[in-house]
Amino acid sequence: MAAVGPVCRGLGRKNLTCWVTAAAHLPKGGTHAVLWRRGCSQYKQEDSSKDLSISMENPYKEPLKKCILCEKRIDYKNVQLLSQFISPFTGCIYGRHITGLCGKKQKEITKAIKRAQIVGFMPVTYKDPAYLRDPKVCNIRYWE
Questions:
Q1: Residue 111 and residue 95: Cα distance in Å, rounded?
Q2: Which of 20, 37, 121, 144 could connect to 116 by a Cys-Cys bridge, CB 3.0–4.6 Å?
Q3: How far apart are CA 112 and CA 82, in angstroms?
């Protein structure tokens, strides 16, 4: 191959590729002749879908967590629901880290509790004893 280059210097590009093709033929035949037959600018990139990656979901991705009230409507008149989010001893509203609600629903719960307290549906300083035995909506543990 190296000897063909200096000999065919003045032949031009087309003739040179023909010479290189002739010099590159292998006795058993092979793909080298095909590779050297074309000029450098004549190589074309072939698009094949075999080598492309397949788009698929991440199997390790955890499903999105939804809060328990995302699909529910919150009303200040539903005192039984609202009383689940206040402390039975102090009447304080539990935070997001305790209730597990999203920010939007936590704000709605807070506004509804405040409105129910102002209107007089809920006591301000303690939880109504009628709702003390209700099942727990969020994972709150009391000292007993």
A1: 13
A2: 121
A3: 8
